[in-house]
Amino acid sequence: PRPRFPQNLAASDIFGAVAREVVEFYGDQVDAHPVGTGPFKLVQWRRSSRIVFEKSAEFREVFYDAEPAEGDAEGQALLARFKGRRLPMVDRVEISIITEDQPRWLSFLNGEADLEYRLGFDFVPQAMPNGAVAPNLAKRGIHGYQNIEASSNSLFFNMDDPTVGGYTPDKVALRRAIGLAYNIDRDVRIVRRGGALPAQAPMAPGTYGFDAAYKSDNSSFDPARAKALLDVFGYVDRDGDGWREQPNGSPLVLRMATQSSQIERQFDENWQKSLAAVGLRIIFETAQWPENMKAARAGKLQMWSLGSTLGQDAQPALAYMYGPSIGSQNLARFKLPAFDAIYRRMLLLPDGPERAALFIEASKLVCAYMPYRIHVHRVYTDVNHPWISGYRQTPFRNEIWQYIEVDAALRERMAGAG
User: Fold this and answer.
1) Ramachandran quadrant class, 54 (left: phi over 0; alpha: psi -120 to 50; beta: rest)
2) How far is the first Cα of the chain from the last one, in angstroms, to the nearest whole number?
3) Which of 55, 105, 229, 312 has its CA 20 to 30 A from that of 111?
4) What whole-number distance in Å separates Cα of residue 107 and Cα of residue 336?
5) Which residues sit opposite 383 in a β-bridge?
6) pLDDT (tens digit, 9 = 90+) per residue, 273-320?
7) Is 148 helix (H, G, I), strand (E, B) or coil?
8) Which residues are registered as beta bridge partners of 255?
9) Phi and psi dihedrals of 351, rounded to 5?
């Protein structure tokens, strides 16, 4: 039995049938040539730079409809305006991938981009101070949206790594000390400019399995306890250089994968300060995100922080710790029979108190062994110009472009006036 199997069939990020001849033609490059039945066709893809979609003439007949919640005035207005319109409402979508936050923000302000998705943390106070669109932007008709995404940001430890991996008490103590040493308050308040909530467990807000009342050591920032753990298990500074060595006296050097963007450098600085405060030395190894992901799946990274998003059920978040998922979701290469047994039991159970309790039991094991240090659930800010209508980001859906209308005439008039 698989009670949530129908949900999986309906989730485009989990299940998607692809014609056999497509897979046979492209072989191991099939991921670079998406073929499907959606509203758009991919016509250009420059990795890490640009993606272009064009309306698909073969897309089935789908018409705009919605069921706005009570009190959702904007949703009611959009339904009244667009109900019955055939989707998609635009012919072409151009996505520019700009790594650095400042040029991305300037591109939006200058009208070179119609909307900015996931505004950089540094510019949220300029765009939406205290959750409201800034007066100077509101005068230009700019709209802003903030939502708690059903997502998590985590650091994984490679459990096969000789330094941070393993299941013996000393290795568990090292990972838990690293977790306790990380200044999550500085992460949320300074680096993310308040754009996140500290995480207690893998389950994200809005998903089945999330329990707002559950609190754990996962979100604790406690350098004193981190130092005590390291001292007790023999991670001490033997040569007086200010850095701790491993229990056998060999050098202790942590290596964390990272990217070259400005925001990643801020996270790296927080890690460096946090770990230095408890005597741990860390080195950052920079590469592009796709290269880091490839290395992570091959088990070649010691540590790396990255985010993940969920659907309506939180069990996929636990797949990151499920033993048989090593090589795909389980980047930590975590193998714990007790956890795997809980995970398999949860697959069979219908939603209810018994299954909900197992989410907590699984979370306790993750916190105890710490293959992942789950940092935050992200709060994202999106902004768009007044010539864009229909844009609304939701907790679970990424396919948004077909619901958007562009008033090209208004965009041209406002560009001329500017």
Assistant:
1) beta
2) 60
3) 55
4) 47
5) 116, 144
6) 999 999 999 999 999 999 999 999 999 999 999 998 887 899 999 999
7) strand
8) 283
9) -60, 140
- How many angstroms separate the CA atoms of 191 and 194, rounded? 8
Task: Answer whether residue 43 shows pLDDT above 70.
Answer: yes
3-state secondary structure 38-84: CCEEEEEEECCCEEEEEECCCCCCCECCCCCCCCCHHHHHHHHHHCC
Where does 139-193 have alpha helices with state H?
169-181, 184-186
Q: Please name every residue paired with 384 in a beta bridge, in sequence order, or none if there are none.
A: 115, 143
Distance CA 10, CA 15 (A): 7
- Report the pLDDT value the prediction gives residue 257, as an integer from 0 to 100: 98
Q: Both tokens of residue 112?
A: 């070179």
What the block records as the tokens of 3 is 């009670």
Instruction: Return mean pLDDT, the chain.
Output: 93
Spatial CA neighbour of 289 closest among 49, 44, 28:
49
Q: What is the pLDDT of residues 258-282, one digit of tens each?
A: 999 888 999 999 999 999 999 999 9
Structure tokens at 114: 């119609």
Pairing type for strands 115-116 and 92-96 reads unpaired
